[in-house]
């Protein structure tokens, strides 16, 4: 009976992913790609930037309804991910940053808060570095800025990365929404190559970020606590939260739903308090 109850809870959790429909969605032409976005709610804009290999739903499906109660949430999908088209070039965090800013210009948004998770957190760092004029506040969820910010075995794993060891939940989510499901291999390979070629973001560029920053990781995250602490110490106006759990469990990212911990119930109010603080 206990196993049945757990299974029922997990099924309900998956069915509730992104149950709220966007008030607006579509594609915008951005630097040679058709970039997909969704808009929810009303109020101050908050841009959500998903993790590697992910879609809007897999990274943020559980928390969009919470955030959209008080804000205009703009969720994006990056080059080759989900519904967004590919361009004939490798991925880079710098290009992703420029693409997000290009999309916001198309949507006539001059300034916004940003919440990036995992690779999306690194992209958010690049937005703050390259386009400070568009940034109000940022939330960095499990963001990487240095190669030593993850255990050494992470890089060994990336050398062996292939579709067989990509989480099934992410593969299923891609094929469900992508206009061309055969692009899964391209997305995977571009993500893997970007990580293998990852270069440290210089400290002076991180120090240059003047916007208020909330840094979040899990205590069993891919990102090691020492790395998050170093970013915190480099940023003049930052806060650090280390939440019990794994990579993305604090936002109930799709691969963590099996833990059934509902971390978002206290993490999202914490994020909202940070975003609402007067500078």
Automatic annotation (TrEMBL):
Single Gene Ontology MF annotation: serine hydrolase activity
Coiled-coil intervals, chain numbering: none
Top-rank lineage group of the source organism: Bacteria
InterPro entries xref list: AB_hydrolase_1 (IPR000073), AB_hydrolase_fold (IPR029058)
Keyword Signal attached: yes
Residue ranges of domain AB hydrolase-1 in the record: 44-182
Signal peptide positions (record): 1-19
Keyword tags: Signal
Protein name: Pimeloyl-ACP methyl ester carboxylesterase
Native species: Daejeonella lutea
């Amino acid at each position: 009976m206990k196993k049945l109850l757990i299974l029922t809870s997990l099924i309900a959790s998956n069915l509730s992913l992104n149950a709220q429909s966007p008030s607006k969605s579509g594609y915008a032409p951005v630097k040679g790609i058709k970039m997909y976005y969704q808009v929810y709610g009303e109020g101050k804009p908050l841009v959500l930037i998903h993790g590697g290999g992910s879609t809007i739903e897999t990274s943020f499906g559980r928390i969009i309804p919470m955030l959209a109660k008080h804000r205009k949430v703009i969720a994006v999908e990056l080059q080759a991910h989900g519904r967004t088209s590919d361009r004939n070039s490798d991925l880079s965090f710098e290009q992703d940053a420029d693409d997000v800013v290009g999309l916001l210009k198309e949507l006539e948004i001059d300034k916004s808060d940003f919440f990036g998770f995992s690779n999306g957190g690194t992209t958010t760092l690049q937005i703050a570095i390259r386009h400070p004029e568009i940034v109000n506040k940022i939330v960095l969820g499990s963001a990487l800025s240095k190669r030593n910010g993850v255990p050494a075995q992470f890089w060994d794993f990336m050398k062996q990365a292939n579709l067989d060891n990509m989480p099934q939940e992410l593969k299923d989510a891609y094929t469900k929404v992508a206009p061309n499901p055969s692009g899964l291999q391209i997305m995977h390979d571009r993500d893997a190559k970007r990580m293998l070629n990852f270069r440290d973001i210089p400290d002076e560029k991180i120090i240059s970020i003047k916007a208020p920053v909330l840094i979040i990781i899990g205590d069993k995250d891919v990102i090691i606590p020492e790395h998050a602490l170093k970013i915190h110490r480099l940023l003049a106006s930052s806060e650090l939260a280390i939440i019990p759990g794994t990579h993305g469990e604090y936002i109930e990212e799709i691969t963590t739903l099996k833990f059934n911990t509902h971390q978002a119930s206290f993490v999202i109010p914490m994020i909202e308090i940070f975003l609402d603080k007067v500078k």
